[in-house]
Amino acid sequence: MHALLVEDDDRMAHALGTALAQRGHTVRRVGRALDALRFVHEAEFVLLDLGLPDLDGLELLRRLRTVCGAPLIVVTARCEERDIVQGLRAGADDYVVKPFRMAELIARIDTVRRRSGPAAAGGDRPAPPGAPVTVGDTEIDPVSRTVTVAGGEVRLTRREFDVLAHLAARPGEAHSREEILDRIWGDAFLAASRSLDVHVAGIRAKTGRPALIRTVRGFGYRLGDGR
What we know:
Blueprint lengths: L1 E5 L3 H13 L3 E5 L2 H7 L5 E4 L8 H11 L4 E5 L4 H9 L4 E4 L4 H15 L16 E3 L2 E4 L4 E4 L2 E3 L3 H12 L4 E3 H9 L8 H14 L5 E4 L3 E4 L4
Parallel strand pairs: 1-2, 1-3, 3-4, 4-5
Antiparallel strand pairs: 6-7, 7-8, 8-9, 10-12, 11-12
Helix pairs in contact: 6-8
């Protein structure tokens, strides 16, 4: 598969590029945000450093997400919780802090690509079967991958929609954290499991319906009544 590597450090870019090539991937490396926006349309997955010389990496991430649905992993030295939360909310599928072990990063890439599906490179994914689910004035359509609230469309990130659609597929059930992490992230014991809470908070905030997802204390989440 073809990777877009957005990294301005030559040594890090060489190490990442070599590791990806050894896995059979082709790589286009760029060191500037403007070049990332120029070439992202051809990428099947993206590795993004946040410390770029011409634009803040989080702002670039937001811009990339408006034009690209490919799986994207942030690989950065920024390790503050605020940065991690902002990166995930802006649309990153995973967040890896430097320094890291290359084998772990490759495993995370494989997991994100597997869960995102091969069609994600073009911004579309195979539509899951099922009729739209209506909760109060909120409609979740798994086929068109859209969410509307009071008749207006709400834009969720791909991962946020996946979480919401998973809960909506069996609306009467409570889903454990481990089940959701395994289904959406591919790892029930993912170290970054707090990203699930970040995505749930994002869904609640963007829809303006905090009761759309109910917390089952000590267990996980379930679809709420939407009020």
